[in-house]
């Protein structure tokens, strides 16, 4: 405190920070990237442990015996699904009722803002079927959910069969203290969204659905099951939900504990855990696993039906069966016993999962990186913006230059208000256009050009984004001579503080998205001035823009998944990612698209305007 309260010491500290501003910024950037890459090194991570006392031991005896019967039920389900050409609602209702459950259905429909070409759908109509197994030993105020999506083709039939097999087995047990809801939802995320909105009496997406006739208690936890074969080699745990939300870490710990007990191979991001952490290949494997989690979390989309539960503060995850060429095989009976053990432990909960972490990264299922470890990496990048803002503040606070007569040059020291307000207003209006025009103008674009609705939306978004590059010319025309040397400094000071607050708020909600944006936007914000070489600087600024960040992320994600693509395939995938991001916003409430369009892109345009300041 003495350093800041003493004017002389404070002045000396400010002089030091301004004199060494550029070297300190470079060191902070390198340190931030290095810190983040070091998080995957096992000695720097924490070993997972169970924080919830009610789930601290796996000492339960799993007795589920009906794996073969579940496989046969799955095949029967597949036959009826093929016969009716979709969800066999009547067969599911009769089958669930035969297992002693209260069975209900829910109809829903949703018209998409534009056709989803990836799944070839526009007007979606479907039915959810769910059965409630009432708790025999409790007042039925709490519930658990086990769901399996009904997907087209032969996918996930075995998951429905196992769900029905577990329902029959659970019906004969007397120790349940919570209602258990067995849900088969149609049209994946859309059906799940309709069911959750109906269950909680909310409608946040404008979907049409019939009210639920039966409800259980307050949902404490949920698991989604995805199985597409009778035997699997490993079970993959999917955690990433809507807007980068993650379930409580104890849910992942519970899955890992029972996999270890029963002897099932378990993976995260499709990667098996390795023990050679001290080797280069072992560290590279951990980095690859962690970066896959970062990329998925940054996308803001739910990577399974469980991702929509997290919006309602329900801890949920997806368990996905993987059938690869490994010799190790796990049958349906073993998977059923694993789920039985997990649900018996969740049945013991006296309160919601809350004692473990909600913000974390996982380089493996046995180790995690807590928020206290990874936030300093982001802080080192964000402090660069504050250091550059401090340097500009000192320059603006310096006494103005004087003329030969000893009079202060007011033109150099007093920028007009329009020099700051005009770029701010125009850049944000461009962001509003980027958010609204792609959906509003799709019919006009289809009528004028030989493109589909989806292509019209994506190409309109790209056209609006590119037209924003004309912002400096529009700004200079409106300024009418208001631009001064001090004007761009004031504008950059505002833009730096704006970007610092924006990235900080984003990182608190979705660290992965905030960190990826900081990696590209912080260097662009730090170096740009009107006095750098225009052509080279403009090229660098475009490469570091949000659109190119997304393009690089698409190729990088494919490399992480060990599925590299050519430039043409990558470009088509890039266009698909844009359309899916817009759809995710309007269908499920993903915030990534409005964040980029309304805040991040306008902020980048401010720095583009500074580069061409006149």
TrEMBL record:
Membrane-crossing segments per the record: 20-41, 371-390, 495-528, 535-557, 591-613
Main location: endoplasmic reticulum
UniProtKB keywords: Disulfide bond, Endoplasmic reticulum, Glycoprotein, GPI-anchor biosynthesis, Membrane, Transmembrane, Transmembrane helix
GO terms classed as biological process: attachment of GPI anchor to protein; GPI anchor biosynthetic process
Domain of life from the UniProt record: Eukaryota
Membrane topology: Multi-pass membrane protein
Protein location: Endoplasmic reticulum membrane
Pathway: Glycolipid biosynthesis; glycosylphosphatidylinositol-anchor biosynthesis
Keyword Phosphoprotein on entry: no
Matches recorded under PANTHER family: GLYCOSYLPHOSPHATIDYLINOSITOL ANCHOR ATTACHMENT 1 PROTEIN
UniProt subunit comment: Heteropentamer. Part of the GPI-anchor transamidase complex, consisting of PIGK, PIGT, PIGS, PIGU and GAA1. Interacts with PIGK.
The protein, known as: GPI-anchor transamidase component GPAA1
Lineage of origin: Eukaryota, Metazoa, Chordata, Craniata, Vertebrata
């Amino acid at each position: 405190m003495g350093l800041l309260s003493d004017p002389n010491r404070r002045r000396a500290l400010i002089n030091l920070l301004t004199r060494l501003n550029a070297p300190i910024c470079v060191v902070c950037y390198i340190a931030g990237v290095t810190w983040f890459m070091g998080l995957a090194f096992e000695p720097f991570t924490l070993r997972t442990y169970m924080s919830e006392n009610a789930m601290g031991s796996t000492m339960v005896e799993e007795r589920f015996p009906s794996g073969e019967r579940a496989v046969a039920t799955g095949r029967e389900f597949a036959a009826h699904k093929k016969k009716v050409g979709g969800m066999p609602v009547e067969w599911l209702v009769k089958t669930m009722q035969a297992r002693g459950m209260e069975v209900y259905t829910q109809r829903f429909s949703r018209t998409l803002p534009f056709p989803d070409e990836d799944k070839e759908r526009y007007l979606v109509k479907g039915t959810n079927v769910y059965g409630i197994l009432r708790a025999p030993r409790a007042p039925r105020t709490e519930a658990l959910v086990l769901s399996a999506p009904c997907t087209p083709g032969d996918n996930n039939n075995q998951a429905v069969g196992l769900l029905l097999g577990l329902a029959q087995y659970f019906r004969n047990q007397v120790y349940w203290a919570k209602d258990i809801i067995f849900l088969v939802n149609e049209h994946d995320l859309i059906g799940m969204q309709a069911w959750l909105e109906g269950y909680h009496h909310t409608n946040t997406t404008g979907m049409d659905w019939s009210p639920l006739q039966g409800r259980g208690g307050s949902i404490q936890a949920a698991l989604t099951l995805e199985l597409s074969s009778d035997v699997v080699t490993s079970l993959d745990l999917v955690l990433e939900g809507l807007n980068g939300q993650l379930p409580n870490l104890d849910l992942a710990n519970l899955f890992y504990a029972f996999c270890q007990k029963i002897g099932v191979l378990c993976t995260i991001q499709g990667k098996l855990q390795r023990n050679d952490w001290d080797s280069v290949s072992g560290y590279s494997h951990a980095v690859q696993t962690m970066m896959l989690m970062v990329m998925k979390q940054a996308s803001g989309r739910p990577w399974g039906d469980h991702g929509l539960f997290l919006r309602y503060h329900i801890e949920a995850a997806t368990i996905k069966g993987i059938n690869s060429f490994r010799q190790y095989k796990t049958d349906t009976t073993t998977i059923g016993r694993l789920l039985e053990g997990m649900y018996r432990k969740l049945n013991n909960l006296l309160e919601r999962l809350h004692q473990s972490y909600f913000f974390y990264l996982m380089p493996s299922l046995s180790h995690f990186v807590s928020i206290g470890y990874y936030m300093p990496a982001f802080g080192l990048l964000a402090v660069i913006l504050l250091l550059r803002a401090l340097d500009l503040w000192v320059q603006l606070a310096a006494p103005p230059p004087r003329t030969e007569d000893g009079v202060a040059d007011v033109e150099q020291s007093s920028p007009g208000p329009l020099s700051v307000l005009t770029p701010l207003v125009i850049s944000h209006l461009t962001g509003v256009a980027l958010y609204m025009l792609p959906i509003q103008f799709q019919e006009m674009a289809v009528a004028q050009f030989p493109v589909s609705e989806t292509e019209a939306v994506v190409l309109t978004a790209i056209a609006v984004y590119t037209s924003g590059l004309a912002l400096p010319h529009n700004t200079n025309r409106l300024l009418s001579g208001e631009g001064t040397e001090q004007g761009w400094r004031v504008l950059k000071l505002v833009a730096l503080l704006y970007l610092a607050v924006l990235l900080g708020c984003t990182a608190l909600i979705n660290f992965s998205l905030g960190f990826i944006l900081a990696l590209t936007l912080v260097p662009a914000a730090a170096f740009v001035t009107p006095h750098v070489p225009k052509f080279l600087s403009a090229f660098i600024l475009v490469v570091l823009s949000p659109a190119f960040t997304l393009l690089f992320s698409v190729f990088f994600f494919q490399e992480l998944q060990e599925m590299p693509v050519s430039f043409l395939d990558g470009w088509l995938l890039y266009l698909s990612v844009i359309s899916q991001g817009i759809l995710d916003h309007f269908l499920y409430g993903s915030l990534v698209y409005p964040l980029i369009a309304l805040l991040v892109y306008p902020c980048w345009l401010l720095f583009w305007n500074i580069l061409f300041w006149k």
